[in-house]
Amino acid sequence: NLSHAGSLSGGGFYYPGTEVTISADENPGFVFSHWTAGGNEVISTEPTFIYITLHYGQTLTAHFTEDTHEYQLSAEVSPVESGTITGSGGYLVGSEVELSANAVEGYKFLYWRYGETIIGFEEELSFTMPADDVHLIAYFGTLTSIAEHNLPEINVFPNPTHTGLTIASASPLLYMEITDVHGRVIISEAAEGKKA
Questions:
Q1: How confident is residue 69, by pLDDT bands cut at 50, 70 and 90?
Q2: CA 111 to chain centre
Q3: Which of 10, 32, 106, 115 has the maximum number of C-beta atoms within 10 A of its C-beta?
Q4: In sequence order, what E strands does the chain have?
Q5: Full-prediction pTM beyond 0.90?
């Protein structure tokens, strides 16, 4: 009953008495309701069903309603208490959502993550709400200043590299983490106090 509410399959020319599989797929923002034939006679409440044709020239109608269910957008910060997020809550499908991540003192915003995918590097994030609950994580990094005389001398070579990389330190390395330009961790391991 709403041409933009979904897509249908199974229509065509059939002899009377033919079993036909009829299917309705809803578009985002809509929910399938029922099928009718010959006016208001409800013949199925299932989106996919088998219909036996009675005569030539029959018309079946799929009925949809707007999806008024609010899906939940939740967000958290990592590490805990490193920042705040505004914009989470309940949204209708297709709503334009705007989130904002704000770092507390001593931290800076790094990126947004949805599942295993990094989806943004700006504090402000906009997207269209899908027909599902969404949970996002805003990552922050510390702004810790270290006195220059406490910094160990670390050499990385060759730089740039395509095949191998050597890390040499005049002081013991307790932990090493290497990330790519997008902030994804490539190598993370404890060095157990050994010199690299």
A1: confident
A2: 14
A3: 32
A4: 6-9, 19-26, 30-37, 41-44, 48-52, 60-66, 71-78, 83-86, 89-91, 96-103, 107-114, 117-120, 124-128, 134-142, 154-157, 166-169, 175-179, 185-190
A5: no
